[in-house]
Amino acid sequence: VLLPEVLRNVDSLKNQVGTWKQVGKTIGVVPTMGALHDGHLSLVRASLTEADVTVVTIFVNPTQFSPTEDLDSYPQTLESDLDKLSDVGNVWVFAPAVTEIYPADFSTSILAPAVSEPLEGEHRPNHFGGVATVVLKLFNLTEANFAFFGQKDFQQQRVVQQMVRDLNVPIKIRVCPIVREPDGLALSSRNVYLSSDEREIALSLSRTLNWAVGQILSGQRDGYELMVEMRQRLIDAGVTRVDYAAVADPHSLATMETIQLPVVLLLAATVGTTRLIDNEVVA
Ligand code: AMP
Known about the structure:
It is built from nine helices and nine strands. By secondary structure, the protein is an alpha/beta fold. It has a six-stranded parallel β-sheet, sandwiched between helices.
């Protein structure tokens, strides 16, 4: 298969979208920050199945990183990203420069909904405002009928779904399952930062989630106790810091002291200097 066509600026994307709309094609968008892996590719496959045309956006969005985060070292691998996409099927890539998305006089932003406040929001205060703003821009630019997100970023998909609902954005959001390594580690562009020792410690996230799911399925209903135990398991396994180990309502993301299904278990921990997240829903 040929390498995907790469659109670098807003005008060329809008022209292309115009030609698709004119002939009534449906459009699927897969927003990413590049450094593509099989998790991203699963979203691309879902879009290829549902939409006539698929646009994969590759944009490391500076406004969702805090000054202390890894914006400058975030992996950028466009050539191999294009290779991987060409193996999956016929897609278009939108890979704009930062100035295309944020011209010098840019000044409007989305105030992220209440679901952005707990969990990630407590540790990354402006993160979801940056996400919501760029995602709405990408929805508008691509005029997509469908957008594909991973359950890996559970709170992110809630923020996006809430924004779409609150602002009546005419798009359907599809959430795809977490893709994992055979040993359980959730695929992440940040996994390349892990040394082999750290990678072993990183397995404690998925193992802790599996253990906790088992606890719930065997009748554990004390959410508080489960949160304490999940945190302790991560610490015992050697993680450097636990940001949160939460049992929450999948819709409101409020902590659940007494477990009632459905429930989502969410973990965020740093291993060495690499921050990892993972989650599991029990329905
Ligand atoms: P990112 O490039 O990390 O911003 O991720 C882009 C999209 O890919 C988001 O919707 C993520 O939730 C999704 N994604 C990342 N990792 C995975 C994974 N392991 N399984 C499924 N989707 C994923």
